[in-house]
Design goal:
Shape: globular
Largest sheet: 7 strands, mixed
Structural class: alpha+beta
Oligomer: single chain
Order of helices and strands: HEHHHEHEEEEEEHEE
Radius of gyration: 19 Å
Number of domains: 2
Strand content: 25-35%
Number of helices: 6
Amino acid sequence: MKRMFIIIIILATILIGMIIYRKTAVGTKDNINVQEIEKIEEYVSKIYMWKEVTNEALPVFTDINQAPDIWIWEVINQNLENYEITYEEIEETAKKIFGQGFDKQFPKEGSETIKYNEETKMYYTTGMGLDEDSDTFLLSDIKRTKEGYTVEIVEYLENYSEEQSVIIKNLEREEIGRVGINDSETKMQEIVKNNIDRFSKKKIYLNEKEGTIYIQKVEK
């Protein structure tokens, strides 16, 4: 009985691993394991924004301190744990996401989505209106480097304007395919994988320090 239970656990672990690989990666090298893929996907999800607010969901830059301010502060806004925060909490969150090498200072007067209240001397996070296109990415390739990882992502849009279907578009808003509104995310990603050359790609350079990863630069 105990042996059978162990076998079931092993098979379940393998199945979960297969699902994660199918969901997040078209191809990987250097024996990247499931835990690494999960960690990378979680981090990229934290910094992948929306073009309505930041012009690009993930802008191109050669150094994190040269990244567009509007994107940086929106990333911070979306990763703050509370609606009401102090200046110190904003700065601390920035370091957690971008690392100790990040040296931009949050503006004392606040930003477009993190407002300062003179009376309470606190900052308050706000939302912004988004359109029907959900900015989305798929991990396409992962390579281990001396500093951390290089990650290629495929960028696409999920449009929810139709009642019974989700329209998959590239960043030029060209329709690539459709799935039913109740279909799984996997079916959407299969459309992307099968039409990979019709989508935009970016390469993300990640540094890893003490098990934590930080973005270094982004290239097209």
